Amino acid sequence: MKNYLHFLAHQLKGWPQQNYYLFFFSLGCQVMTLVNDKITWITVITFIGTTLGVLCILAINAAKSVNGWLGILSAICFIIVGFSAKNYLSIGEQLAYVVTLDIPVLLSANWNINMVSKIRKFTGKQQLLQFFQQLLFT
After folding, report:
1. How far is the C-alpha of 16 from the C-alpha of 137, rounded, in Å?
2. How many distinct structural domains can be found in the chain?
3. Which of 82, 87, 107, 129 is 20 to 30 A from 115, comparing alpha carbons?
4. Are 98 and 71 spatial neighbours (Cβ–Cβ below 8 Å)?
5. The predicted structure's pLDDT at residue 119
C-alpha cells in the first residue's frame, strides 16, 4: 500500500509546465468564486470537486494514470452536489464517467506504462481531414 501511495504521489510530478500554469490559474479562479459569496458545505464540496476535476483533465493530458482516482473523487463531489440540488441527470452522468472512464483506467495494469509513446500524433493533413469531418457530420 505504501508503494502504491508513493506511485500516486509520483504521478503528480513531471507534468508539462503549461499544466501547472493551467492548474494554478484555475485554482485562483475557483478561490475567487468560492470567497465571492457565503461559504457553505455545498460550495466547499463544489470547490473541491471542480479542483479535482481540473487535476484529472490535466493528468490525462500528462498521460498519468492518477486521473482515475482524481476522476472518481471529483465525481463523488459532484454526485453530492447533484443530490443536494436534486439534479439526478448530473448524478447519472458522473456515474457513467466513473464506470466508463475512471474504473477502466484503474483496472488496466499497463495503462501508464510508456503511455507517452502510445499517444497518437496527428499530421497537418490528418488534422485538416478531422476538422472537415466534424464540420460535415456534426
Report:
1. 33
2. 1
3. 129
4. yes
5. 58
